[in-house]
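Continuing from the previous page...

OK, I double-checked the sequence for LysR family transcriptional regulator against my notes and this is the correct one:
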Amino acid sequence: MDQLQAIRAFARVVEAGSFTKAADTLGMPNASLTKAIQQLEAHLRVKLLLRTTRRVSVTPEGAQYYEKTQRLLKELDDVDASFSTAQSRPRGHLRIDTGSSTASMVLLPALPGFLARYPDIRVDLGVSDKHVNLIGDNIDCVIRGGALTDLSLVGRQIGRASWVTCATPAYLREYGMPKHPSELEEGHVIAHYLSTRTGRSLPLNFAKGREKLEIHGTRAVGVNESTAHVAAGLAGLGVIQTFKYAAAPHLTSGALVPIFDKWQPEPYPFYVVFPSNRYVSNRLRVFIDWAAELFAALD
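Thanks. Re-ran it with the corrected sequence; updated structure tokens here:
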């Protein structure tokens, strides 16, 4: 039995909550993973996992074993990393997740430059506005906006994004150009962005000096994905408030017209987020530094 491999396999099952998902992320057959854990349990003479047709649960002994072996695995990763010189080229596989407009408008256009700089790094980019399970899905990091609330995660702020409130010329001809955000409460319609956590419409926020406003208005349509949200605005379904970088091409072309230039919410902070118990590899470190350079240039 390869005990180290068996320990890593056991840890992935605990984190993923599934033998199949753990086998996929480790790149090994399900049968091999099962055999490795069975051998580990026989070696320890204790049951670590309880497996049914629907779910996998960890025994009390398994939870204790996971906690202790996690510290050992992290120390081993630290030892391995200490033998890598600072000049060594970062290499390996990075799994990253981010929202759709961030992926299409910010990351993907710049990614060729990152891969040219670090040709030995391979990137898998998950694209979704929904929040993912970093540990369970074996993701190295996510790029997300807003306040950090999960204490099991570590975040580094990499930049801030400005907002824009806008609508199509056709919409403004039909409903008129509002002069004050309060006018959106009546006589206008809003294409709202829906929270991926709660499904509720997020209000439009405005600030001018010390004055702040929160506008709900009449909802024409709600969209829970950022690229589709911009598409809703382009379709003339209502006023939208989105990141300026997401709407920039359409503002330049005139397909969308900015309104309330003097009323803008505070710029939105963006973070690279990763699990607090995960070793920050050289490849992840250079990606975070590169992402910080990239987001620093956002308007």
